[in-house]
User: Fold this.
Amino acid sequence: MSTTVDLTPLRRLSHIEHFSSTRHHIGIYRCVTVTCRYQAASSLAAQAQLDTAKLYPALAAVVAAQPMLRVGILGQDSNEAHFSHVKEVDLRNHVSFKSLECESTETYEALVAEQQGWHHDQLWPELETRPPWRLAVLQPGPNMDRETQLADIVFAFHHSLMDGTSGRRFHELLLSALNDPPQPACSSPDAPHLLSFPDAPKLPEAQEDAIPFRNSISYVAKTLWSELGPDILKPRKVVPWHGKAIDFAIPYKTRVRPVDIPHEVVVSLLQACREHSATLTGLFHALTLVSYARQLPPDEAKSFAASTPINLRPWFGPKADPQCKDHLRCLITSFSHDYPAEAVAAIRRPEADLDALIWQHAKRIKMELVERLATLPKDDINGLLKYVGDWFDFWEKKKGKTRTESWEVSNIGVLPRPPAGASWSITRLLFSNGSMVAGPALGVNIASAENGILTAGISWQDTVVPDELVDSLERDLKTYTQRLHDAGKFGAP
Assistant:
């Protein structure tokens, strides 16, 4: 394996990549995870055990084709971090297998979620010489009855390498390679686990080089004043409910709670969204708002704020390298939504028309995002990250401050079905963010498989959000969506 002495520095991390590399170094954000359920065709159940003989060649092909899976990070303790050329990748350092002993589907699902939370909490070792990603193949033990072979593959990765959309895309590539086994040139039959890459990879360019951000003088001045101006000269801000304040001393433990929405219910949700000029992202924002408003007391939570990550791939500029456009990478920004006190109070009224309010907010979120998408990449916060000279000082100043957002809804979309007759398919995705110590108090992370279930992965830092609030959010998401499917309306809780 490579040593730090003979490592070749590649390009410097982009601003958004530094955003995550510094968070990892001080321990306040470790990774993103996208877990997919790989299901074997019934006729192959007897011989479909997913082992290294099947997985290593497929994984080797994906790693060989994706430069961001074969780089380390040099100087993560600085503002000058660079990616490093890792000449050898030993898959044994990245892949693990675990049998989850259980007797029921419910127990198995809970154990998968627990494992996902564990992966969120791990720091990346040997970051200079070992690419920061891992696969964990989880399979139910022999005591759980099942008709076909299945495995949940946890793909955990450092956010500097890629974003959630790339996490979904990784599974698409792995699934394709499993169904059409390749002959990877980077490994030998005698050592399929050891991959060799003597030549330095051509990395996707930095986000600020691929996306032509342009910011007006008024936007720059307003944003910098908001961030850097003295508080005594600013109007008093309305602080939304945000769980506990930012505290780096709280133990970093990520909790993950999956909410599975059956396919037939998803079909009803999509139809209803079309009828009300809304989207699933907006609808899940609205349902989270209603759940929070009805569970938290008015004197504790007068208002809320939330955010939606936005995939920046549609805004490649003319200078973007066409050979890298489809590579796994981090290309993302975010947009915030406010829920003022009067809007929250309207939901709490006993006589409130819940259906009308849910669709009102779902439609509003869609319109806000449509308007924002129409102006991108102009006046975007990512275009101002270059003004952050010292990221460690930036994070230090967050300590003790209130969070700006109550929750985040992140939707990485639908994973397509493989061709008919494929040996393996993916039937479920569980996507989640790790604990966002200096970000939103809770994440609602949406992903689905084509013609399969939709899963909303709720994630939060232990003790920052009360368990009772998560319990009620899980229950409400299930109840409201099922009620819409059964009765055509959300109705009263």
Summary: The chain has a mean pLDDT of 93. The longest strand covers residues 424-433. The chain has twelve helices and 16 strands. The CA atoms of residues 21 and 76 lie 6 Å apart.
